[in-house]
Amino acid sequence: MSATASLPHHRVAIVGGGQAGLSISHHLRARGIDEHVVFEKHRAMHVWETQRWDSFCLVTPNWQCALPGHPYAGDDPHGFMKKDEILAYLRGFKTKTGARLREGVSVQLAKPLPGGDGFLLRTGDGAECTAEQLVVASGGYHQPIVPRLAERLPVDIVQLHSAQYRNPAQLPPGKVLVVGAGQSGAQIAEDLHLAGREVLLAIGDAPRCARFHRGRDVVDWLADMGYYEMPVDQHPLREGVRDNTNHYVTGRDGGRDIDLRRFAREGMQLYGALQALDADGTLRFAPRLREVLDSADRTYNGINASIDRYIAERGIVAPPAPAPYEPLWEPAAERETLALAGSGIAAVIWCIGFTPDFGWLDAPIFNGRGHPAHRRGVTAVPGLYVLGLPWLHTWGSGRFSGVGRDAAYVAERIAASLKAPVPTMELASCI
């Protein structure tokens, strides 16, 4: 008898209790695969509670909230749910799924058993169990990115990652340097700006898009145009699209564009990407501010132009096309340096994303960049799947709009590959 034969056993183990993990649980149950377990090291959906600022709201319309068996049912499908509404929506989904959740239980190790006979899992307290199939649904945003130069900032400057930011009041008086202008950075900079704080924003290559164009939300147009149905292998960038920064836009106050040039005209100080901190306390920025602003505007105008072509080709009745966006403000010169001494900067907010952490998964599925290789969530290791990653299959794979469809596909693959049903039993426990 093998050393693992006496261990508690699950037909399917799911690691991660966010929208991806609960979605696959829903679809497994719909296929009669009740004997599965979801391990969540914190609480289900905890990221939405703990890593979102107070004024956070969706940047895509409510109608795109389409978790399996739990579509948006409110009275504002074209609005944008605020944080409390999102949490209520997710609590409702958690209740509906009835998932067998093991909250507060981390998986410290998961690896294939010899001979392809399932997987061994070890939890945080050292307990072990086995599983016939394994779904990695923990997402790809694990470790907040903070550059090493942060260690050399003066100790009296408060530093937060975007995951820790809540509201302007938590920061000391003084100027705030926001580093990064993707979705989080642009919205946090706006939150501070609207609160009357003096903001310095270091921006990279993030693109932007319009909120509304020709009488409708741009998301509505792109949905009609089939963009959200495009699989990753048909995207012009192929798998490279997974590395793209999301377009900055906001659903705040009913939805609007985020125009960094307008912020600059109102007093926000814009810089290129932060590159270094010299020994004398001088911050150095890439001299590319004009270039990245122009690039973001080209993307903005390009998306609108693609919508215009779609309208024209189909003879759709819509309001007239506005003139292409013209810059409201231009940098007089590149700001390449900033001496911290005397700058008045009291806080820095790092908005440069997260890195994945799959150190607990001992399986030969990772590429040279540490990301799991897969095709629509199916890896080269039999019985091992990934779910909830950006562009796993389509644009919506890491979002409420598409994760359910991905989960249905993976659940179908699991159902087809499971061995003959075993007698009904009490759910095994790893602890």
Task: Give the topology.
Layout: E1 9-15, H1 19-30, E2 36-40, H2 46-50, E3 66-67, E4 70-71, H3 83-97, E5 101-103, E6 107-112, E7 119-123, E8 128-136, E9 143-144, E10 158-161, E11 175-179, H4 183-194, E12 199-202, E13 212-213, E14 216-217, H5 218-224, H6 260-265, E15 269-271, E16 274-277, E17 282-285, H7 289-314, E18 337-339, E19 345-350, E20 354-355, E21 384-386, H8 403-417
Parallel strand pairs: 1-2, 1-8, 2-5, 8-21, 10-19, 11-12, 11-19, 12-15
Antiparallel strand pairs: 3-4, 6-7, 7-8, 9-20, 13-14, 16-17, 17-18
Helix pairs in contact: 1-3, 1-8
Task: Give the structure's gist in a few sentences.
The chain is of the alpha/beta class and 431 residues long.
How many helices does DSSP assign? 8
Terminal Cα separation, in Å? 22 Å
Oligomerization state of this entry? single chain
| Proportion in β-strands | 15-25%
Query: How are helices and strands ordered from N to C?
Result: EHEHEEHEEEEEEEHEEEHHEEEHEEEEH
Radius of gyration: 24 Å
Shape: globular
Structural class determined from secondary elements: alpha/beta
CATH class of the largest domain: Alpha Beta
Whole-number mean pLDDT: 93
The strand count comes to: 21
Q: What's the number of domains?
A: 2
Question: Major β-sheet, in short?
Answer: 7 strands, mixed
Low-confidence stretches: 420-431
CATH fold-level assignment of the largest domain: FAD/NAD(P)-binding domain
Helix content: 10-25%
CATH architecture of the largest domain: 3-Layer(bba) Sandwich
Q: Any idea what the CATH superfamily of the largest domain is called? A: FAD/NAD(P)-binding domain
